[in-house]
Amino acid sequence: EAITVQELANRMAEKGADLVKELFSLGMAVTVNQTIDQDTAELLVEQFGHNIQKVSDADIDIKAEEDVDPEETLKPRPPVVTIMGHVDHGKTSLLDALRGTNVTRGEAGGITQHIGSYQVKTKNGDKITFLDTPGHAAFTEMRARGANVTDIVVLVVAADDGIMPQTVEAISHAKAAGTPIIVAINKMDKEDANPQKVRERLLEQEVIVEAMSGDVQDVEISALKGTGLDELLDKIALQAELMELKANPDRAAEATVIEAQLDKGRGPVASVLVTRGTLKKGDALVAGTMSGRVRAIIDDQGKQIKEAGPSMPVEVLGLGGVPNAGDQLTVVENEQRAREVAEYRQDKANEQRTALAPTNFDAMFAGLANKAIEFPLLVRADVQGSVEAIKTALTNLSNDDIKVRILHSGVGAITENDVTLAAAGNAPIIGFNVRPNAKARQQIEREGVRMMYYDVIYHLTEEIAKEMAGELGPER
Ligand code: GDP
Q: Which residues bind GTP (predicted)?
């Protein structure tokens, strides 16, 4: 693991020559083009007194995170909702049922074309955006790419089946993302529906619904019969109100690519969610490493529209190639600039493929940004008793400066989903008497997720304690 002096200088927004000077005074004679190891890099970062959050790419790239909208430009925007839950508990049925309400209410008529996501209006006229990406992988993968688009998670739990492994997983994902949950207890039309049991079992997952004197909203529904849906929409609207979701609609647009494909007739088509600003026909844009000009904007009813504001899910035509899900789409001054940025990113992507372990440096800078450092990890063990014992032991290692954060824990083999979650959270996976399954193994390689295997709890805590101390650095 190494980084060149120049690259580090770029990341710190310092001059390469200054770093070389500092290194020289430390007794290391290196040039800007030579590499240094991570320990030396860390030392330098400290020497320069840096608290860097995200260091700029070169000046050429777009730095959206530095471009903050003034408070007075912000206007309320609809919430963006993702539906999660165990397989067969009714996620798809619910999405379809909600879409159905929308069609009748919006009297748009006809069959809606399948686009990634859609908007629904409550009886009060509040808009809600639903992302049509059932499955947890989509949620976590987007997050892994820095695209945290979901404001609220609707957790679907079948009233007859109750809490199942993927329910627990969904809760972990939502919690890891800090996204509030609304529980939709589905299949209430079934004879053996037992919503009370669902509420009780949710307690074990630290999801405490209002009926159990918590603050998580829950609602009984039947996606099949269409009951409880208005109530669900109202609760989402209420949650959104509490969150005071806002964005500046009067600026050049930014959007997140939800999915994208090459359409035979229409060329590259990107389903995007506008995050701020208003996207207009004719805008020059860059999405990931692709650039182009907006040729058409298509709304969730399949209609061509001229512009799209915050939280609107739309299809965009006119990109020169197919971007990746999770890519940021940004409107720029002109096509020339769009091309320039796209090319620069393409070059950089090529470079990074050959560079060594950049994620570790990213983790290092991320750690430097916060005062109370978090130490995220995932825990998998062979039996529930071990899971609990490990969780307790790890939690006890936390102090004021650094906190263990368990993103997810469970019994059994390490799964693909664990790996996705670990990659998103830049966390190692602890396997206690368990190993990854075949598919997870491939993904571990691909994502470069760190694995830590143990069969003695004491060894585990000792090792983690050491690493935590290391993260804090010498002067704490
Ligand atoms: P998903 O895997 O979570 O997307 O679940 P689906 O929406 O595909 O639903 C799984 C099965 O449960 C399907 O056969 C649905 O018809 C059925 N189902 C979904 N919602 C309800 C409901 O409210 N009541 C009943 N009785 N069945 C439902």
A: 85-92, 132-136, 186-189
